[in-house]
Amino acid sequence: MARALHDPQRGYYARRVQDIGARGDFSNSATLSPLLGQAIASWIKEEAREMPEIRHIIEIGAGNGILMETVKKSLGWWQRRRFEWHIVDTSASLRTQQKQRLGKSVRWHDDVRQGLDACDGKAFIYHNELLDAFPVTLVQWHAGAWHEVFVEFTEGAVRESLQPFTPDADFSAIQQTPKHQQQRYELHISVRDWLRSWAPSSQQGAMLTVDYGDTFPTLYHRRPHGTLRAYLLHQRLEGPAIYQNIGRQDITADINFTDYRAWTQSLGWVETSYGAQADFITSRLGKSQSQIMDSNGAGGAFKIVTHRKLRK
């Protein structure tokens, strides 16, 4: 999955993704409506009142740049001028779109640690639909034990195989026997390791995370086959179809927020809010639920969690 999405020559995000929105393979809440960007701007203003010494804002995985553009406009001329703006993104194709949209007012970085170093470890960080693009480890309950799902490509054919897997205490889903005999779960080991790689560089600030998912076990209610899927020209593909267009389609899985919230807490982040994206926008902008759902139909499926990192 990592190679299919991020390989420099053949990966989807490296060469395929040209646009996010109606003309691309998928849309996200930032391309559908300005409401999310406006709500994030409101959050930044609140955090800036609590920590006025912080002068840097980092967006991780900025897509085509439209979310940052909306956030900056929503802050107003004077507010946005007080901040230095940074983007962390590894896709050359998307960086080109971001530069065309945002101009020279932004600094780009290859990883979060590099971005934080440029901010002396003090920044307000946000990311939208970033974590779902991380590769997952797919596991299945079989014969009374957990197994990892492997994929073999032989003479043009695709075959899955199961190999023994040792449960890890960091993942809530595999700490109990599932109700379904062939239940599948996605483990975001890569997200856990990514957080650990840069969290020590964060000295002070706040972080806002937007993604689709839920807490465990609600996340897998009536989902015995898990949440792994692909998108090609807005068509949802599941099962064996996710192996048919490698490098030409997005591949994604829902986020287990029980795990994510536990990892961030263990790394020194203090959670300040968690809930549905629609509720977050309502509380920030005073919009009605119908207004939000009309402009962004996924407002309930997406969750937002906010954190603060206090001064060391």
Spell out the key features of this protein:
single chain; 312 residues; alpha/beta; Rossmann fold; eight-stranded mixed sheet; four-stranded antiparallel sheet; 12 helices; 32% helix; 28% strand
**Ranges with pLDDT <50 over ≥5 residues?**
none
Main beta-sheet strand count, sense and barrel state: 8 strands, mixed
Mean pLDDT: 90
User: Which class of secondary structure composition applies to the elements?
Assistant: alpha/beta
The name CATH uses for the topology is: Rossmann fold
Name the helicity range. 25-40%
Tell me what the structure shows.
The chain has helices at residues 2-6, 12-16, 29-32, 35-50, 66-75, 77-81, 92-102, 112-118, 189-198, 257-266, 277-285, 289-295, and strands at 56-60, 84-88, 106-109, 122-128, 137-142, 145-154, 157-164, 184-187, 204-214, 229-232, 235-237, 250-252, 255-256, 270-276, 302-309. The protein is an alpha/beta fold and 312 residues long. The chain has a single domain (2-135, 189-216, 251-309), classed as Rossmann fold (3-Layer(aba) Sandwich). The strands form 3 sheets. Strands 1, 2, 3, 4, 9, 13, 14 and 15 form an 8-stranded mixed β-sheet that branches. It has a 4-stranded antiparallel β-sheet with strand order 7-6-5-8, with no helix packed on it. It has a 3-stranded antiparallel β-sheet with strand order 11-10-12, with no helix packed on it. Helix 4 crosses helix 5.
